[in-house]
Amino acid sequence: MTVTVRDLRTDDRADVETFAHVRRLALPFILWTPEAILHALTRTPPEAHFRSLVAEEDGEVLGTAQIGLVHDSPEPGQGFLNIYVHPERTGRGAGRLLVRASEEHLAARGATKLFAWAIDEPANRAFAEHHGYRSSRSAHFLRLDLANGTLPPLEDPPSGVELRTGADFADDPRPLFAVDSETMADEPSDVDVEFTDYEAWLEETWRHPQLSPELTSVVLVDGRPAAFTLARTDGRTSYGTAMTGTGRAFRGRGLAKLAKNDSLHRARAAGFTEALTGNDTGNGPMLAINKWFGYEVCGTEVRYVRELG
User: Fold this and answer.
1) Does CATH number 1.10.606.20 belong to domain 144-298?
2) To which CATH superfamily is domain 3-111 assigned?
3) In terms of C-beta density within 10 A (0-12 exposed, 13-18 middle, 19 or more buried), how is residue 67 classed?
4) Taking the domains of the chain in order of start, what are their residue ranges?
5) Burial tier of 199 (Cβ tally within 10 Å: 0-12, 13-18, 19+)
6) Which of 90, 168, 197, 217 could join 263 via S-S bond, C-beta 3.0 to 4.6 A?
7) Which residue in 36, 43, 16 sits closest to 242, CA to CA?
């Protein structure tokens, strides 16, 4: 039997569900749903040349890839390939073929530097290094047991500070975009981004199928959004924090904690039993906040980089 690579069939619900299933098996710390996978394919700007690939053998999906160009970076020629193989189907060549197809696609569209995440396990790291990638930064996945854990008590906001939800900004989320773009620009990363396209943010972030405006918390200072926690869910039992951030002018006042605590309490009240998030290992302040809430590291990924040409 031969392993082959093809594009994900977006018009085949079973194919998309299988893609999500393999991703959940390989990386259970992210909210993989068919809706989110289709959203990435249909809402990512065309200049990203985004694709989702599968490797299959005799009709069985062995591995998956999401690839594209970093379209919102001021530095051209940067691409990404994130490849995950079914943990019980490794060693059949699926990963190797997905890497080859991904690199060919990205190189043909002008990529000169490629970034890839690999689970921090010896076999995965050796695979990346064998293909010419060098290790860079790392990031932790964190989990909080909402069903049995103890959250810090809710506190009344200080004078001049108000807690709202994302639903309160349904008619005009632009003020949240302003805080999110400032926060994203300061995130530890190998790749600089210019998060300036409001319409793209609406499509990719605000209209994401997993976004929960009701569980998204926003802190206002004198009526102005100053900090937020952007919440997503899988529609079942898992709640995830896509971003928690504070505008530069308001940092050091505990506003991110205030937003996240409010969101976590409402998530638990809504019946969600686990909270998931992720942090760059160099993001000490956010790791400290999550530790304060009781999050525990449940996995680590390493960022790998390869120069082409």
Assistant:
1) no
2) Gcn5-related N-acetyltransferase (GNAT) (3.40.630.30)
3) buried
4) 3-111, 144-298
5) exposed
6) 217
7) 36
Nearest to 40 by CA among 275, 207, 229, 191: 207
Q: Report how far residue 69's alpha carbon sits from residue 75's, in angstroms, rounded to the nearest whole number.
A: 11
User: Residue 87: what pLDDT?
Assistant: 96
Q: What is the DSSP letter of 77?
A: S
Model confidence over 239-284: pLDDT tens digits?
999 999 999 999 999 999 999 999 999 999 999 999 999 999 999 9
Among 18, 26, 22, 66, smallest CA distance to 44 is for: 66
Please report the sign of the dihedral spanned by the C-alpha atoms of residue 67, residue 127, residue 141, residue 279. Answer: negative
CB of 166 closer than 8 Å to CB of 266? no
Q: With a threshold of 0.85, does the pTM exceed it?
A: yes
Structure tokens at 111: 């990529």
CA distance 196 to 149: 38
Asked, colleague to colleague, whether 3-111 and 144-298 share their fold, the answer is: yes
